[in-house]
Design a protein that fits this description.
The complex is a heterodimer. In chain A, 38% of the residues lie in helices and 24% in strands. Chain A is of the alpha/beta class. Chain A folds into two domains: 170 residues, Rossmann fold, CATH 3.40.50; 78 residues, no CATH class. Chain A has a six-stranded mixed beta sheet with strand order 6-7-8-3-9-10, with helices on both faces. Chain B is built from twelve helices and two strands; from the N terminus they run ααααββαααααααα. In chain B, strands 1-2 form a two-stranded antiparallel sheet. Classes of the chains: A alpha/beta, B mainly alpha. Chains A and B meet through helix 2, helix 3 and helix 4 of A and helix 5, helix 6 and helix 7 of B.
């Protein structure tokens, strides 16, 4: 691989999270380096999404710290996380269904819009320039994801695979440094999976975006990720390159099954 | 013909006033997915505030009617901002990501609280708001129809104010990035948070806007009927409008209001004599009931499709 893996950008230390008596995560630590594709895998209920939700600030872990670009937090605030440059997609689609593809992706630019309400309302001066500028970026994303024909379509009417793309597009509109993807390929057919893989690799390659992804499809994970964390029942049972993980006996028995 | 048009116009203007209240419901529902039961109480609260402020300003000897009303309006708007801020802080913030029903019940609580607070702060007598609207009707189209058409100037001005407000709100929702953020929050709290839309600030903005709409509605209704407790029940008149037009549509609130306004007046005048009158009182509700059976999302509401 020719790409340059940088320093640690995101460091998760000793995170524990429980819901009542259920331990969703216990003492999980791992790091993510700049520009890498880092996968989190594990069987159903292993705590993968919970981990992502901790990083994203949806859940507050009872213990542990998260360091992002040198700043350490005991819990992340959803809004603050977005401001710092972490975007995410959702396992179950969470798009703004009534809005068009274009508007959905435009919402991702919201953080970067500076002009005040009055200017926006009359569409003059700085607000107009700004809107055009942002619209341009959004069009680039639309081109990139190959969803040009659906620009004005309300997302609720699009097929599932395309909705997943719009979800990715909205996250990309933030121009994030770190992209958290929660099962970006769940429920897709082979062709759609290939497309999505290509987009993820391109994003990583062209923009240097660091990607943390959760995925079930082992083939995909092993193909595209640089390093893999394996969770099982809220515990970390493996961490390393795809090859290392594949040969880790604990991982084989827990995840891949003994017959593999 | 002249009489028919006169009835029609009267209906349209009455409808505009219903729309104004319905708009408050639609705004909050669109932007936060909450059916705000407290809209009627907010209308009462805002009108009471404005009536008392203008009374006080008059007593300080500020002669100019326009100035008094302007200052009183701004002060009442400030009060509604505070109400919005407190509601967000004490109620909504605690209920992020909760079921719609939970939030509905919370607004029911807010209703009683606001009704009580309004009356204990501002008093429970009948007050009047005088915004200087001309009361005498004017004649129009005298050359076209024999006798011309009698138009109530007060209604005409109220309808104009309502129309301006609606135009402004549509612009705000459709054309500004804040409007886009509001629609985003309405669709999905979590997703909106993930792209850095500050939920709390958005909610304060929505409730403020709804508060100002309530204030305008309260001001106009108040100057027609006097500011009193029954103003809170104006909201009940707006419910059928919302059902008709669709809970998620600003134009729907307007057109729903117009249909009900016109329908009420026409049916009262032309059908009333056969059934002994009184159609005006129940017409809107029966129409809403029919709509619930045939087209539950309303004329312009978003159709709910569940993918399995």
């Amino acid at each position: 691989m020719s790409k340059q893996i940088g320093d640690v950008i995101l460091n998760v230390q000793h995170i524990s999270l429980s819901f009542g008596g259920v331990k969703a995560l216990s003492d999980i630590s791992f790091d993510v380096c700049e520009h890498e594709i880092r996968a989190i895998i594990g069987p159903n209920g292993a705590g993968k999404s919970s981990m992502l939700n901790c990083i994203n600030g949806v859940y507050t872990p009872q213990q542990g710290k998260i360091t992002f670009r040198g700043q350490t937090f005991s819990h992340m605030d959803s809004h603050q996380v977005a401001v710092m440059g972490v975007a995410r997609t959702f396992q179950n689609l969470a798009l703004f269904k009534g809005m068009s593809v274009l508007d959905n992706i435009m919402t991702g630019r919201n953080l970067r819009m500076k002009s005040n309400l009055l200017w926006q309302a009359i569409r003059l001066g700085p607000a107009q320039r700004e809107e055009i500028e942002h619209r341009k970026r959004v069009e680039e994303i639309i081109d990139f994801l190959e969803i040009q024909p659906y620009r004005k379509t309300p997302v609720g009417q699009l097929p599932y695979g395309l909705q997943k793309r719009v979800d990715l597009g909205r996250a990309l509109a933030l121009e994030p440094q770190v992209l958290l993807l929660d099962e970006p390929m769940a429920g897709m057919n082979v062709e759609e999976k290939q497309d999505m893989c290509r987009f993820i690799l391109d994003v990583n390659d062209e923009f240097g975006t660091t990607v943390v992804l959760i995925e079930h499809d082992m083939g995909v994970v092993m193909d595209i990720s640089d390093r893999v964390v394996v969770l099982d029942y809220g515990k970390k049972i493996g961490d390393g390159t795809p090859d290392e993980v594949r040969n880790n006996p604990e991982v084989i028995s827990a995840y891949l099954g003994t017959g593999h | 013909m002249g009489f028919f048009l006169e009835t029609l116009l009267g209906g349209l203007m009455a409808g505009m006033l219903y729309s104004l209240v319905a708009l408050g419901f639609v705004l909050i529902f669109k932007a936060s997915g909450v059916f705000n039961f407290a809209q009627g109480a907010m209308v009462l609260f805002a009108a009471l505030a404005m009536a008392r402020f203008s009374e006080w300003l008059n007593s300080t000897g500020l002669g100019n009617l326009w100035l008094v009303n302007l200052i009183a309006f701004v002060m009442a708007a400030a009060v509604m901002f505070c109400v919005a801020w407190v509601i967000e802080r004490l109620v909504l913030r605690q209920l992020v990501n909760q079921e719609g029903t939970t939030l509905l019940m919370a607004t029911l609580g807010i209703t009683y609280f606001l009704e009580g607070l309004g009356q204990s702060l501002f008093g429970s007598d009948i007050y009047k708001i005088d915004i200087g609207m001309p009361k005498e009707p004017v004649m129009a189209f005298e050359s076209t129809f024999p006798g011309g058409i009698l138009i109530n100037q007060e209604d005409l001005i109220a309808a104009l104010i309502a129309a301006c407000l609606v135009a402004l709100l549509s612009l705000f929702f459709q054309k500004t990035s804040t409007g886009r953020a509001l629609r985003a929050v309405a669709d999905d709290h979590q997703a909106a948070q993930s792209i850095g839309i500050p939920l709390n600030r958005i909610w304060v903005i929505v409730w403020c806007v709804a508060g100002v709409v309530a204030l305008v509605a309260g001001m106009i209704w108040g100057s027609k009927l006097g500011v009193q407790f029954s103003l809170a029940t104006v909201a009940l008149r707006a419910l059928p409008v919302v059902i008709l037009g669709g809970l998620t549509s600003v134009p729907g609130a307007i057109i729903g209001g117009l249909i009900i306004g016109v329908g009420e007046k026409l049916s009262e005048v032309y059908l009333g004599p056969y059934v002994g009158g009184g159609i005006e009182i129940w017409f809107a509700y029966v129409l809403a009931l029919l709509f619930l059976l045939v087209r539950p999302q309303g004329l312009f509401g978003e159709k709910i499709i569940d993918r399995v």
